[in-house]
Amino acid sequence: MDRRHLLSVAVCLLGLSTISLAQRTSPPKITKQSPSYFVVLPKQPVSIECEASGTPAPGYYWKKDGAVLSMTGLYSMDGGNLVVRRPSELTNGIYRCFANNTYGTAMSEKIEFVIAFADGFKDSESTTFTFDEGQLATIPCNQKESVPAPSVFWTDDANPGNKIPLDNRVSIDPDFNLRFSNIRVSDTGNYQCNVKNDKLRVQLLSPIKEIVVRSVENVEGRPATLVYTPPASVEAFRTEKLRLKCIAEGFPTPTITWNKEGETLPEDRTSYESYGQELVISDVVQTDVGSYKCTAENGAGTPTSFTTTVTVQSTPYWQNKPEDTNVVINDRGVLDCEAEGIPVPRVTWLVNGVPSTDIAPNPRRTITEGVGGGRVEIRDAITEDSAVFMCVATNEHGEIFASGFLNVESRPAEMTDAPKRNEITIEGKGFELTCAGQGSPKPVITWTFQNNPISDTDPKYSIVEDGNTASTTSTLTVSGVSIADGGDYKCVIENGFGSVMATSTVTVRRGTTIIVGPGDEVFVEEGLEVVIECEVDHDETLEPTVTWYRDTGAGQEQLDLSLPGGRFRRARTGSDSLKVLNTVVEDTGTYECRAVTSEDEASASTQLVVQTAPSAPSAPIVTQRSDVSDTMVALSWTSGGDGNARITEYIISFETNFDDLGWQVIDTVSAPSTQASLDLSPWVTYHFRVVAVNDIGQSPPSPLSESYSTNPAALTEAPENVKLDATDPGKMRVTWPEVHPYDQNGPEFKYIIKWREPGDQAWMGNEEIIEYEVTEYEIDVGEMYKELEVQVLYSNSLGPGPASDWSGFTGEGTPTQAPQNVEVNAEDSSTVVITWDEVPDSTVNGQLQSFLVYYSMIEVQAQGQSPAECFPNTDCRVQNLTPFQSYEFQVAVRNGQHVGPKSTPVTVKMPQGESGPVYELTAFPLSDRIVVKWGKPASPNGVITGYHLNISSYDNNNRLGNQTVVPISDAETTTYEVNPAEPDTNYYIVVHAVNGYGLGKFDTVEPKTRPAGAPVKPIVAESQIAPGKKYINVTFVQKDDGPAANQFYVQYKEANKEDAELKTTPPLDLLKGSMITVPDLQPGTEYLVTVVAANDDGETIGDEQTTKTIGGATQAASPIFVQGWFIVVLIVIVALLCILLVLCILKSQRGGKYNVSDKEQQRKGDIESTPLKDEGGFEEFEPRKDNPDGELPRGSQGSLRDSEPGSSDTDSLKEYADGELGKFNEEGSFIGQYGDKKQRPTEDTDQSGAAYSTFV
Questions:
Q1: Less Cβ crowding at N or C end of the chain, within 10 Å?
Q2: HEC string of 1062-1118?
Q3: For the chain, what is the radius of gyration of the CA atoms?
Q4: CA-to-CA distance for 1206 and 1199, rounded, in angstroms?
Q5: What is the Cα 966 distance to its own chain's centre?
Q6: DSSP track, 976-1010
Q7: How many Å apart are CA 47 and CA 38, to the nearest integer?
Q8: The Ig-like domain covers which part of the protein (predicted)?
Q9: In sequence order, what are the beta bridge partners of 254?
């Protein structure tokens, strides 16, 4: 390149830089200044700091107390800093720094400049203060003013230079006076008030304050009195500390307590200083207003208190400061300012340091000032509108300042930092992309992924921006990345005058993860093997190395899974899971599976717990618990190891000198207790042992305790569970529990049985039994049903124990006479009342208990009905009988042991009763009519004479409409048509059967009629058209919704004849059928068939269908399932299956599974001799060759076909029934289980309902 070209390039670059410099302009901004309260040392030069930014660089000047300073004599400038060469009282004042350039003037906050000083004390000579012991004493400090505020404390000559100790008796009040609540003789001494000024590094001592305390023999108590309190009204300032102090005097020393009336003090912000005298509430908030009370008390009188009212005030503070704003030409700029305070401050504006009211008006500028906030707004901005605006918020407690400039500029966006071109990350982790740019106005940075905008409202993305008025930096963080997050990410920087972009390509590799982890804990029983699962998933480009570590308490160690014969190995070939063989308790610890790749790693750990049964406890120690009885002992032991499974309980057992008892468990104690209290039996020698139990099992038994023997003792318990049973007439059997030698309490044990008549003093008999295994004795007095008093006792060498007294009767005989003149009268359709003559006592042969009423339904054989029981002197009723049936009744006498003969049978016919509900009530609704159908009741309970219908409609709120009552007097009529019916209406239909009793139980049906209108278009599927050789069957299927068809007909004609006649079948009422046969057709011919649905509102024609009749020379091969030979084969197969099923059933009947099988076997000859109804029957059922005449074998009960008329199929079972018929199950006949369980209606004259009854 020649010189001319280089010169051209240089000129261009210089021009561009000049343009860039011209564009980068801004008004001044104060960036650093001295504190607003600036205390300095006198006569020592000091700088008041002031720095400002701005383009071009700003110039500086200062004002003191509102007047511009001239830089001569006392003052000079160092950059923007003001140098005060010799501070003095003349230099004290309010200073302010101003920085200006061509775009505006910035102003610092006010700086109060003060020189430090410390005056002495108001008194100059020593003072002596004399007090009597116990008095209140106040020693004034008398300090003068000091700047800055000094720290003040008191010292005495006892510890020169050290602060005197303070407590609730000795304190310093807020005026720095020293106060003694009650002075003591030991307080005598010289005291000085110390004023320390840290700025001047001086400490001033007051003149000596001598305190003389006169001793008093008896110091009288003096009630607490407040000697210092805060003002009655205190102002607290927001965010500052509220301090309230009370000081009290009195003897003894009072204590101070604080509370807030009506509220509790905020615990997190409340503290107490000066030993409770001073209440401090930090970070004051508005809710701290209220009344605060300090109370002083010392027990010597009534407590005294003082209340102060606190209000909360606040200096101004910012809610929203104005911010530096860059706008482009012709744009709009706004500076907002909001402040709070108590009271709310007034906001005013300074423009380039001049009050807004004193500047020339600008039509593009609007300035708003007022209480709480203000605004500066520039519209259609031009360069000359650039300025510095200072917001001033003022209330009675102070003022605050905040500045912001409005800079009118324009500069295209440019990129100063681009994201990495390529980024690699791991699935599940995150990555960051950073993009930075600058321009005026401040550019906006946006991000895209695969050209789609990214929003930080998506939880996956986080966009953090930082910067200043001209530049901005945006950091995009993508967290929890997946493979789908790989791709191109673009950073776009734009500000209206230009845009730039950069692309970063992100590659996401699948992270290494443990997809099947070992879990939190793995438990295994010692000696078994255990597998700790670990399955690793990783990116195909990353090959992980999987290593196992464990820590059993001695530090982590790596496991070698390749060691030959080792107990640690991989669970399977190619698996990363760990198998531990022959586990031992010492394997218990933490096991970690760690997968490491070149990019990342993953790990998962678990706690392996190897469990075993506990170790044996120590030998138990037996100690006697009572001096009174040696049978009360305490047992204690020490637990062994728990085998890594918590011990849940201890089992305590014993063995005795009675070998037949072996080891007996006496108690179980829940862990962690290791002791037990036991009650033993007298005259026994014991050994004890303890077994520990955990979830794995039981420990070995502990060693045996030393032997422990108890002494003989008297028997203390009377025999229990003694039974007196009447046996044969005149005899009574006495039984009692066996008493083992363990419970005999001593030697020479025996049973004693005594008996006598009630009221006698002397015993009729006395029997002693010395064999403890004998536990019964029969008393024979020879008189039936005689009452005896019986006494049973236990006795040993120390004498008999308490007696057990009982009474009972000797055996009864059988009643000899049946009740006479039995009468049975029907009380209603299901209840009868039975009466008979009184039975003579002499025939009862015992105590009359009740009368048994045997009854059975005459029409049903072998019912096995349990008898009803009636008691003497009560009405005898049998209830729940079946109406309109004949019953036979007999009565017998029952005493305590026997039942007498039955009375002569009495027969009664029950009156008609309430019929059961009708059978299978159904309704078939169309649009304008409903057909109701039913069957006769399964339980007519009389002669059915007709039916009774109630028909009513109801609305959507279930309100019934008008009711129509329909009586039907014909018992054979079981249908009724509701015609007409309202379309699209709910109906409620109730049907009763009627017999001689009246209305029976009802059944209901709730049909809904279909909507009105012409029927919906019929849709005829291929399966609804079945062609024959000379006919076609068409089946109509009513749709579930829409208006219903009442009838339908079929239109048809030949398909391939142009002049074919369209024919129509007669219509078919859909309540009478749903299939029409189209007759007289030609075989093998195609026909066009159309179904027409009709009702009273019109007709609807369905789609035309094409079908072909069967046969003809050109007929195509029929499907296999409609060919004749296939149908024949199918029928033969079904028949063979039916025969096989019958043979299986008969075989199961001939089996011996059931209790009745023996008698059923006796009947098989009859079964086998009975031919089937089919022609010829089967050989298996022909008569046996050894019995050609078909005679029944000996013992046969007769043919199943030869039952009496009206008998049921279950009669063969009833012959063997001991109880109710319905009790047969798997141990009885299977017929009832496999028969039709649905209750079918019966004829009025053939009712066979079982008579299950209740009795009163």
A1: N
A2: CEECCCEECCCCCEEEECCCCCCCEEEEEEEEEECCEEEECCCEEEECCCCCCCCCC
A3: 58
A4: 15
A5: 57
A6: EEE-S--TT-EEEEEEEEEETTEEEEEEEE--BPP
A7: 10
A8: 28-112, 133-203, 223-311, 316-407, 412-507, 512-609
A9: none
Q: Is the pLDDT of residue 476 over 80?
A: yes
312: number of Cβ within 10 Å: 18
Contact 758, 789 (CB under 8 A): yes
Q: Residue 885 has what pLDDT?
A: 92
pLDDT tens digits for range 1190-1231: 443 333 333 333 334 343 343 333 333 333 333 333 333 333
What is the C-alpha to C-alpha distance for residues 774 and 753, in angstroms, rounded to an integer? 12
CB 28, CB 388: distance < 8 Å: yes
Vertex 657: Cα angle to 652 and 659 (nearest 5): 85
Containing H/E element for 1157? helix 1157-1162
Q: Which residue from 904, 883, 884 is spatially nearest to 892, judged by alpha carbons? A: 904
Structure tokens that stand for 401 in this block: 């300042």
Tell me whether strands 104-107 and 127-132 are parallel, antiparallel or unpaired. unpaired
Which DSSP state fits 1128?
A: H
The overall pTM is greater than 0.70: no
| pLDDT value for 733 | 96
Structure tokens at 695: 């979830």
**Closest to 902 measured CA to CA, from 894, 914, 890:** 890
* DSSP secondary structure letter of residue 901: P
Six-digit token pair at 298?
């010392």
Distance, CA of 869 to CA of 848 (rounded, Å): 13
Please state, in angstroms and rounded to a whole number, the distance separating the CA atoms of residues 349 and 620.
95
819 φ, ψ to 5°? -60, 145
Strand 535-537 versus strand 513-516 pairing type: antiparallel
Distance CA 560, CA 547 (A): 9
Hey, what CATH class is 731-809 in? mainly beta
d(Cα 107, Cα 112) in Å, to the nearest integer?
A: 15
Q: What is the DSSP string of 664-675?
A: EEEEEEETT--E
Say how far apart CA 1058 and CA 1060 lie, in whole Å.
6
Nearest to 391 by CA among 341, 323, 332, 344: 323
Structure tokens at 795: 């006795």
The CATH number of 823-909, from 2.60.40.10, 1.20.1250.20, 3.40.50.1240, 3.30.230.10, is 2.60.40.10
Distance in angstroms (rounded) separating the CA atoms of residues 550 and 789: 81
Unique residue bearing structure tokens 């025996």 = 750
Beta bridge partners of 831: 828
d(CA 745, CA 797): 9
- DSSP H/E element including 522: strand 521-525
Per-residue confidence (pLDDT) for residue 15, from 0 to 100: 37
What CATH number matches the domain at 1022-1120, 1.20.1250.20, 3.40.50.720, 2.60.40.10, 3.30.70.1170? 2.60.40.10
CA 761/CA 772 separation, integer angstroms: 28
Name the pLDDT band for 478 (thresholds 50, 70, 90).
very high
Copy the structure tokens of residue 923.
Answer: 């309704």
Query: Residue 20: pLDDT above 80?
Result: no
**Domain spanning 119-219 has what CATH number?**
2.60.40.10
3-state helix/strand/coil string of 824-890: EEEEECCEEEEECCCCCHHHCCCCEEEEEEEEEECCCCCCCCCCEEECCCCCEEECCCCCCCEEEEE
pLDDT 10s digits, 668-690: 999 999 999 999 999 999 999 99
- Using an 8 Å Cβ cutoff, are 84 and 75 in contact? yes
Residue type, 182: N
SS3 733: strand
Q: Are 885 and 943 in contact (CB under 8 A)?
A: no
Q: Are the beta carbons of 415 and 498 closer than 8 angstroms?
A: no
Helix (H, G, I), strand (E, B) or coil at 643: coil
CB atoms near residue 165 (< 10 Å): 7
At residue 741, φ and ψ (nearest 5 deg) are -50, -30
